Amino acid sequence: MSDAPVIARKGPYIVELEAGKTYYWCACGRSANQPFCDGSHKGTAFSPKAFSVEESRKAGLCGCKHTANPPFCDGSHKGLAD
User: Fold this and answer.
1) Whether the Cβ atoms of residue 3 and residue 45 lie closer than 8 Å to each other
2) What Cα–Cα distance (Å) separates residue 5 from each residue in 21, 22, 54?
3) 20 located within any domain
4) pLDDT tens figures, 5-62
5) Is residue 6 included in any domain, yes or no?
6) Is 82 within a domain?
7) CA-CA-CA-CA torsion for 50, 52, 57, 58, nearest 10 degrees?
8) pLDDT(2) > 80
């Protein structure tokens, strides 16, 4: 398997996040439940990123898996080749 993540989407997933709830962001790009982990990383070098938010809010979670600020989109998808 490649050391690079699968680009699930060239753009963010806009999701509603609940305060205090723990989420697991898919870092490998293989999950069928994007942008969240479904265990598809097993057998790869990737692990999900656990996170929570202090206040309930909408957020843009990275879909390209190349963000420098996981799990949040930082616009890295704009620099990826087609």
Assistant:
1) yes
2) 26, 22, 28
3) yes
4) 999 999 999 999 999 999 999 999 999 999 999 999 999 999 999 999 999 999 999 9
5) yes
6) no
7) -10
8) no
Among 24, 74, 80, 79, smallest CA distance to 52 is for: 24
Of the chain, the end-to-end C-alpha distance in Å amounts to 21
pTM above 0.70, yes or no: yes
Q: Please identify which residue in the block is written with the tokens 């989420």.
A: 23
* pLDDT at residue 1, rounded to an integer: 56
Structural domain for 20, as ranges:
1-77
Give the per-residue SS3 of 37-82. CCCCCCCCCCCCEEECECCCEEEEECCCCCCCCCCECCCHHHHCCC
